[in-house]
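Worked example 4.2. Below are the chains of a multi-component assembly; read each line carefully before continuing.
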Amino acid sequence: MKRLYLPLILFLIMVLEGVALELLPGSLLTNDLLIVPHWVFIFLVYIAIFYDKDRTYFSVMYALIFGLVIDIVYTEVLGVYMFSYALLIYVVHGLKKLLHGNIFVTILLGIVGLALADVAIYLIYMVVGITDVAWKEYLSIRLLPTVLSNLVFLLALYPIVVKKLTAWGREQLARSNPI
Amino acid sequence: MSFLRKKRLFIILIGFIILVALIGFSLRDRDNLTGVEEFINDTVGWAQGIIHAPINFITDIVGNMDDFKDTYKENRILKEKLAEYKGLIYEVQELKEENEDLRNNLELTDSDNMRNYNPIQATVMSRSPERWIEQVTINKGKKDGVEANMAVITPEGMVGKVLAPSQSTSTVQLLTGFDQFNRISGTVSRDGQEIFGMVEGFDKETESLIFRIIEESKEDLKEGELVVSSGMGGVFPAGLPIGEVKEVVPDQYGLTRTALVEPAADMYDINQVIVVDRAVQEDTENGEEGE
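Applying the procedure described above to all two chains together yields the following structure tokens:
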């Protein structure tokens, strides 16, 4: 039963992403800055750092699944979020083996992963033709505000989830087979 | 170790191939969503509805209080308007009768009228967090009679069209996300003559719709004129307000002129929308482009 917690939380966060943008006052959306919530990705970073052991790849699996769901529900262009989330969570998972999991490492990996994931999404959308924003403009109007606002979410989440995730990881992954 | 490296590279390559295949699959012209997509859309829509319910309840209460505060002021204005309306009602009555008579003479039934439509009320549930994709989800789907390419309006004017209906939810593409593949045939109506054109997309810099004037007329468009849908495209009914002309500029080749049109409806603060089910059913094949 406890194994269902993670997918449920991820699902809830994903639903909130969409509802939040609808409920926030319109003035936030009309200004020039494009703030994209990547809360699912932030939570996946936590899973990669604190839940997963070195040989398990639950975070990457969840990244694949929920990336695809985001694509289906919110963008209709399949595969973009799935690929970028999974790839970058895989990178974060790889880097965490080298570093000890504490708050600074989390912030560092979170920022790097998030920025690269958003850049990957930008590049794919650019190739597909959904956006034609120039690189410089993208940096200032989307990447920076997005990373900063998601960093707030990352910091807010830290005290709540770290202990829980570590405990669940110890409990559930001690005997399980690596995937 | 080298085997592991190779395996890793291999997986990333396969992932890339899957990515390209998926994008290709989703970008081709699709009439319908696959069953899996519909199922996921409906499930997420259901969850969004649950989250929405208490929040809506609270915002309703707050909204009611605000309404009370404004009541006195509004009441005064409304009384003034009411006096004006009395004259108008009489005029409308006359026109309606006349219209009916003329229609009877031409032996047209009511359903032939391009202006007629069946409204489907819906609530906006969520907006895509990916800001480059201007789309919202509404809580009505195929079960309620929503079909692809139907126009979506608010009382102020048009906001977009239905992109992909699922069973109980549908995604709506907003006007701000329109491109040359989603054109609306529009018209500026004035005494004596009409100017026809196409709304061909949204210009992000000026935050206005691009209205290309097809038919060159002797008189120029002026600022503040209202662009409405013409109903000629066979998808949207006639007479839905689209926006006001803000500026008229020559297009990039200098051959035709385009008008920058400010959308009548606020695209960023939408709660209640009406899906417009056009009463006249022309051949649906034609409606593909949403012209």
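Take a moment to check your reading of the output against the notes. The longest strand of chain B covers residues 117-127. Chain B has two helices and twelve strands.
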